[in-house]
Amino acid sequence: MRRLWAAAALLLVAAVAPGWQWPQDTGFDPPPVPADNAMSAAKVELGRRLFYDADLSSDGTLACSSCHEQRHGFADSVATRSGVGDHAGKRNAPGLANVAWLPRLTYADPGATSLEIQALTPLLGENPVEMGMKGQEAELARRLKADACYRRSFARAFPDARITLPNIVAALAAFQRTMISSDAPYDRFRRGDAAALTGPQREGERLFRTSGCSSCHAGPHLTDAAYHRLGDPAPSDAGLVEQTGLEEDRGRFRTPSLRNVAITGPWWHDGTAISLEDAIRRHPVSLADQDIAALVAFLHGLTDERFRTDPRLARPDTACGKRL
Ligand code: HEC
Ligand code: HEC
Prior knowledge:
Blueprint: H1 2-16, H2 41-51, H3 64-67, H4 115-124, H5 137-145, H6 148-157, H7 165-176, H8 185-190, H9 199-210, H10 213-216, E1 227-229, H11 241-244, E2 252-254, H12 276-281, H13 289-300, H14 305-309, E3 318-319, E4 322-323
Antiparallel strand pairs: 1-2, 3-4
Helix pairs in contact: 2-6, 2-7, 4-7, 9-13
The structure holds heme C (2 copies).
Residues 211-213, 215-217, 228, 230, 253, 255-256, 258, 261, 264, 267-269, 276, 279-280, 283, 285, 295, 299 line the site of one heme C.
């Protein structure tokens, strides 16, 4: 009898605190999650809908997904995309695979230390203007409140049930934390399947370690999340100095993750590198042509087809049972 009660109590706990299960087979630890934005299925589902919703931009033309497309590893295929109203873009959109693990986001903003903070930049930012919602937070809430499904979704996701900017960015962050790439050929290789990479890719993997690439493109997410100057003497984009005001930071950019890098081109902070070979040659290293070819082959081994086609990350077809 006592055991029955214990089982019933357990079931009850499971029903009221659905918790969150991270995938178990990734080969890396679960990501850090801010204490005030616990993961939940309801929050992730809401964040996914918001990520694909162009109502988050002032003129209804741009969603997060306009510049972060799943088939491109959540980057896009243009050098720098304009924001609303044809405001010129400034930088190339990076892919979002495993952003949950990155302690510093974007190319050159040391203040962007969480996905919650970062999401305010595309929504409200003015340099450059992306989604153009600065000063229009009330309008944003009004639009979402007009939709009964959003009202229900916010109520399920947040104790205060409110449709506010902090809740919007919290849901977006929770969804982005589920953008987990752990099934590239390189991941299977890391987990012990030597045949997951081709011969040239294995040679590239070796060079990646022995030529110093992995000192900056470090760890399972292939970035040290630190800022480096790779030698452009007169960069048109001043990089980190814009935020810190320190002259030594001129031309410094955060090491991008190389996950899915073969499908996130064009490359470089300004999208001016038109091939992976070009991107590698911009580093101050001298490598023989055949070594560059092997490194490029290795970079192709970082493409995760499962991630790229994962239906849980795709544009939702329905919300609250209705077609979108
Ligand atoms: C107009 C195109 C555009 C839109 C719309 C856009 N982004 Fe981005 N995103 C970018 C660019 C460009 C960068 C790089 C900015 C930089 O480094 O200065 C970026 C960077 C990021 C990063 C940092 C990734 C990393 O590797 O550090 C995240 C996370 C992100 N965006 C999420 C979002 C979310 C969430 C939305 C919607 C609220 C959104 N983006 C809307 C273009 C866009
Ligand atoms: C000193 C640190 C450092 C080392 C060493 C390094 N990188 Fe990078 N890498 C960076 C930084 C920083 C960027 C971004 C530069 C920019 O956009 O201005 C970058 C960009 C790239 C890109 C383009 C990524 C994108 O999304 O645009 C590729 C590809 C790349 N590196 C591959 C390599 C390879 C291969 C090696 C070894 C030969 C290497 N890197 C060594 C720091 C480094």
